[in-house]
Amino acid sequence: MANLRQELLGSELTWYTAFSELLPLLAVGTIPLLKVERICQEINTGSLTIENSITLSSPVASFSFSASASFEVRSPSRIQVQFKEGTLKPPEIKSSVDLPESIDLFGQKINLSPARQVVNPLQDAVAGIARSISGQSPLKIPIPGERAASWLLVTYLDKDLRISRGDGGLFVLAKEGSPLLDQ
What we know:
Elements lengths: L3 H7 L2 E5 L5 H4 L8 E10 L4 E9 L3 E13 L4 E11 L3 E2 L8 E4 L2 E4 L1 H7 L3 H11 L5 E4 L6 E9 L3 E6 L2 E7 L8
Antiparallel strand pairs: 1-2, 1-12, 2-3, 3-4, 4-5, 4-6, 5-9, 5-10, 7-8, 10-11, 11-12
Protein name: Plastid lipid-associated protein/fibrillin conserved domain-containing protein
Keywords: Plastid, Transit peptide
Subcellular location: Plastid
């Protein structure tokens, strides 16, 4: 197992991605027309910060949320984390609504052709909304108090995978670019 201090401090920026760490969000993948596009953790050792982010996508828009934190390496395998703020980015409205032909809902195939015919004339209105929302600033939400503090104990670390546990649960993360993500 690599030393956490060497891994974290050996490079300026490291990205991890994990679907297992946000299991409640995986349920989103079972909601018709809404899917998890990306889950990512960016570690910046230069500024000793972490940013956890997720992007959800629908036929109409993409939604991005993130939480930023500072961290301190306490031992070769433990870090102390202090969350600072959450960020809700304005939705990215798609220039066209991309409804599938059909969806599966509770084991039944639902034909969306009638809905697609209704949506097609609304494309120009959707494009106008996209232009007006695109310039908005993200909403920053401070994360105050004791609940913002956390710890993380790395139990396994190699060039592709990090397994950690903390007061928030068990986290299995693959480094971006790892062949593990191609499976």
